[in-house]
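[Automated response] Your request has been received and processed.

Submitted sequence:
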Amino acid sequence: MGILEKLRPQPRWKHADPGVRAAAVYELGPDEGDALRQLAREDAEARVRRAAVTRLNDVAELGEIARTDPDDDVRAEAVRGLAGLAAETTDVARATDAVRQLVALGRTKEVVVVARESTVPNVRAAVVDLIEDPKALGAVSRHASDGSTRLHALGRLQDAEEILNVALKSEHTDVAVAALERIAASDSLSAIAQRARNKVAARRARTRLRQMEETSQPAPVAPRLSAEDRAKALVLVHRAEALVATADPDEASGALSEVRLAWAELQADVDIDAVLGQQFESASDAVREAIDVRRQERLAEQERERALAREQADRVAIVSEIEQLTGPEAADRIAELRVKWDTLPPMPSEYAASLTRRFQDASRAFEDRERRRVLAEAAAARLETLATELEQLLASDQSVDEVVARWRGLRRDADVLREHATANPGAAERLEQAVAALEQKEGEHQQTRARQEQEHLRRLQQLCRQVETLAASEQLTLKAGDRALREIRTALESRVPLPSKRDRQEIHTRLDEARAKLAPRLQELRDADEWQRWANLQVQEELCREMEALKTEENLDVAGRRMREFQARWKQVALAPRVQGEAMWRRFKAAQDDVYGRTAAHFAAQNEERGANLARKQELCERAEALAESTDWIKTATAIQALQAEWKSIGAVPRGHEKAIWERFRQACDRFFTRRQEDLKRRKEEWAGNLSRKEALCAEAEELAESNDWDQSAARLKHLQATWKTIGPVRKSRSEAVWQRFRTACDRFFERYKHRDQVELQEKAAVRETVIRDLEGLLPSEGTEPGAAPDNLHAIVQQARTKWQQAPELPRTVQQDLAARYFQAVGRLVATWPVAFAGTDLDPETTRKRMEKLLAKVEELVSTQPAKPAAPLSPAEMLAQQWRERLASNTISGGAARSAENEGARWRALEQEVRTAQAQWMRLGPVPPEIAGPLNERFQRACRKFYDQRKRAS
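Generated structure:
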């Protein structure tokens, strides 16, 4: 037994004991896939097959086992393996194959788990595309952690009941709202509004129900919008509503800001009705709430990922340490780590399969490293021998085929020993150099042979296509068919190397079939060719007679034309029996030469005339090319049209020059007219731009025409007028209209500016006019009996009085007339419906009492004052009075001053009381004229009397 045989002991997976075989399954390396598949499919023990299934990574093998294995546990393990592969792989094709196996097995539950838990977006999307069951699609839509997967599953869902379940039961905002948008029934919307788990979906459902109710009711009178403005508003509303289903909250937030900015700009231009405004605000609120919910969901998902990372940290640490284990003490350490692994708590399902697989792979890798270390010690001696043998093989003078064949026999030994290169580094380096040289030689040999085989295959396939096309063609000729049969015979007799036996069989079959189709058709063509040659001989004789008849033709143009026609017809019937055909050709050629000699001079003159025509047309081309870049559009267009007319008057040119000279002339003309069209287009665009700018100035001027901000608006209009002058021309048909529009707006403002004082006065008076009209509108028409008092009449009148008092002050003459109308209207209202004002400050009886009270107060103030001033004192009396005051205040001048000051303060206090009484009198309500007249006269007389006394006292 040699050293390599010792390095390859009997594998434990072939042991008679099932327990040993089951344990050996986990020792098999990555290169022992065939043994693993054999155990999984053929072992008699179910537990061995199950252990092998846990190691399998081949989708087809797992699917076959899941369908055919007699043991339920083995089939279940295969199903779990398929689901794990589909959930863990990043290869979309591999995941799709695994899911198809699960779908074929009817394992919808595992398919849903894969769609929900795969970490690769493309895999999730591919899995969702394979799901057909509505309930499974609904489960993915409700529970998938990724928003794109949820929306993708919902997009494939067509069952109305499942769509309703998604809207009701999903806690994810994006899919719940997207499902809601696909529901139109009011009862379903009502159920969502009441029972939906997602608050945003419930709120959106309530908004839609409210909109449906508003639509079913008579629409309120709203501002009239143009169709274009309403369409813009509806587009913005729909864009806002669509943002509710946007998965990315940051993207949705940015898009909402853009939509609201566009809405604000639209509101600044037009008056949008309340229904559209409410609908837009409801959609905006729903989007904001959806953004908040999705941000909370994102934070929850991130926290969940961090929790999972914390949970699996201990196991990841064990796996990482196993992956790094080396050295003689590693066997004891891995045993301790395996015991520690088994004592850890169970793993969550999110990562149990992948982490367990990693642990098993790390353990197997460690065992493989240990086995390789043991084998390396035994491989050191064999390295030297094999390196020498391979170097001798490279130095031998054998053919490349023999060297490659011998190398293939030694390759397996070299692969085994190369893994133990550290046992003998010097021999290993020699071995690597020899192996590299042999592999290079083998690769070059294979590439050369492969290129030759592919070239032969390509050439033969091309031949097959050619002969097959020829055999199926209706236009098969005898010459082409004979050549094809020769090529087929050559290809079949040659035995060139091809990539595979199958390719050779296919090529031979195709060539045999093509030859079988061609042979009978070629025989028919040969027979037909003989008959055709005899028939052509009769036609050739007729052509000879006609050509000989042309010798007497007087019209040389006709003779030349007929000669060319006979030449063309002769080419069609040129095939004839050899002997007779040569005689006929000599006869035809002699007649043709005679006719050609008669027409040669005529055609020479004709060619000279056509040459002159060509020169004239070339001159026209040069003139047209010189005009092609001109910018004098009208004059140049007339000149080119004249050149075109002259061109038509010139005759034909020599044969072969017609197309070229015409293309040259046409291109020059087209160049000018294209430039002219582009210039016109540019000017139209410039006119349109100027018109747009002038219309914008018109719109701004029209807005300022009714402005009352006189100075600022006047300055702005003057700036607009200056800007107008800087803008270029517009189309003549629009110039006058747009100018008149701008001028009218400016004239309107400056006309109002000249009369701005009257305008301001009218605006101030308009407030009081409005109050008076409102009060007069409450009165019954003249000549009609007053009915019941209007509801809340007193409150209405009180509001009118408040507005009257708060209105701007007016010139006295204007305000007197308005005040008279105001008090008259209030008095008529009180007189018409006194009951409505009973007990209020407008009650006539209460007002009469207040008037009498104020009158009594003023009359009392007047009566308490001396009727006339005291008589002037003599100097002695004044001195005595001052002496008395001095005795009282110890100063002569101080007492007099203080007395005068006290007297002035008393009169000012009395005057303030009178003025207060006058103000209160003005605010009193209406009283019948027969009562108000005398009282008002007394009150005014008392006031005048007081002021007279005040004047005399001062």
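Summary generated for your ticket: The CA atoms of residues 392 and 434 lie 9 Å apart. Residues 615-682 form one domain.
If you did not submit this request, please reply to this message.
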